[in-house]
Give the backbone structure.
Amino acid sequence: MLQTPYLHTTITTSAHLAQTMTLLSLTSTELQQKIESELANNPALELINERRCPMCKRLLPQNGNCPICSQPSDLTGTEPIVFISPREDFYYSNNQNFEDISDDPFSSESVDLPTFVLRQIAPELNPGDRLVAAYILTHLDEDGFLTINSYEIARYHHRQLSEIDAIIDKLKRCEPVGVCSKGPKEALLIQVEVLSESVTVPKFTREVIENGLDELSHHHYAELGRKLGISTIMVSNITNFVADNLNPFPGRASWGDVRNPNENSSKVYHKPDVLIYHLNENPINPLVVEIIHPIRGTLQINPLFKQAIKQADEDKIQEWKGDLDRASLLIKCVQQRSNALKMLLEKLVTYQRDFILLGEKHMNSLTRAELAKELGVHESTISRAVSSKTIQLPNKRIVPMSIFFDRSLSFRCLIKEIIENETKPLSDSDLQEILKEKGIDIARRTIAKYRSMEGILPAYLRQSNLEVAN
DNA sequence: CTATGGCACGGATT
DNA sequence: AATCCGTGCCATAG
C-alpha cells in the first residue's frame, strides 16, 4: 500500500492504482497534456487559484508562502529544500498561437528539441506549413531522426510529397543541423553542405560519408583510402574533420560534450522535470529542488457542478457522476504523483549530493531497489517515477534522472581522466592495471566498452592523433 | 603476438 | 518477464 502523508489516504481501488502508476511515469510535459485535455473534456474539473508570489512572480502552491522567497537569503546547511513548483514559464500550451513562438529562438535554454527547432523555422513558413512542421517535429526519436517517412506525412496532411520534402529540407538546416534526417549518413551530408558555405571542407569528405561510413566508424582508414583512390593521410584528415565538426546524431546532445565543452554542445533539448540549483545561485546556500508542476494553479472539483448534479435529470445523472469520479480520481493521483516525486527527490538529492555538486566522478552507486526499500514503496514505483524524466543540475546541464542510478559513471569518468593525462597511449590492459591499483577491479573488455561509451579512440589511434597535433 | 571489437551468455536489475 | 550490463571467447587487423 502506498501511504500518502499529504492526503492521508491509501490506494483503494484498482482504477486508482492504475492511474497512479500511469501518472507517475509521465514527464511533466505529458502530464500537462493529460490534464489539459481532461480540463477541456470534463466539466466537473476546474482550475483555480492563480496566486503569484509578489517577489519572484512564481505561481504559488495551493496554500502557503512562496517556498523560495520565504527562505532567508543567507540560509546555509546541507538539507535540500524540495518542493512542488507550478512554474508556468517552463511550459507552453499546445494550442498557443504560433506567433509568439518566433521570438528569440536561441535565448531560452530549456526547451525541448521540437520547440527549439520550430521557433527557428516558424518565421519562414506560412501558417499551414507551420502545422506540418510541428507535426513532423513530433515524430523524432531521441537522436533527432525522423521516425516516419515523408509519404505518411503527405497523406496525413493531404499535401504533395514535394511540398513535404521541401519543408523537411528546411528543417534539416535548422540547429542542430541535420535534425529530421532519416539517419546518420543524411545528417552528416547536410552538415557538410551547410558547413561548406562558411568554411572549407576537405576534398572528398562528401564521398567518404557517402560511400564509406562503415569503414569510417570501424577505423579501416587504409582500406577506405584504397576504395576511393585517395591516400590514407587524406582519409585521416577527413576523419578528424568529421569528428571535430560534424555530429551523426543531431538530437543527441552529449555527443560533442567530451571534446569541446562549450555552451553550444552542452545544450540538451529536453524540458527538465526537476530543477536543482543553489538558493539565489549562491554556492554556499543550500540546494533548492523544484519539481515542475505543469499547470498554472490548483485543480479542484467545480462546486457548481456538484450543485447541479443534485437537480439533474435521471438520464444525465449517471454520466455526470462518472465525470465527477474521474475528476476526483485525477486530482488525487496528480497529488500522489507530486508527493511520490518529492519523497524520491529528497532522498536522491541527499544521497547523491557529491555528484550534484562536484561532478560525475563522485557518483555513488545506488540501485532503485535500495531506494525503494528505504522509502517503503515498491521498486516499480521508483522505476516509473525515474524513467523518462530529466533533471537540470546546478551547472545547468540537463541529464536524465536515471543517471543517478548509473554504477559505471564514476569509473568512466576516471578512465577519461587517466587518458587525458596520459603521456603515452595506454592500452586497455594498461588501464586495467592502473584501476586495479586504485582498488577498482573490472575486466579488460569492460574498460574497452567504457572507453567507447565516452567516445575515446583506441590506444593506437590516439597515438596518431597526438603526432598530428604536434 | 598484441590490442580491440563483435557476439552472445548469464546474472542482476527493473 | 523483459531489459540491461559486465564479461568471456573468438576473429581480425596490424
Remarks:
- Residues 375 and 466 of chain A are 50 Å apart (CA to CA).
- Strands of chain A lie at 45-48, 81-85, 274-278, 287-292, 298-301, 390-392, 398-400.
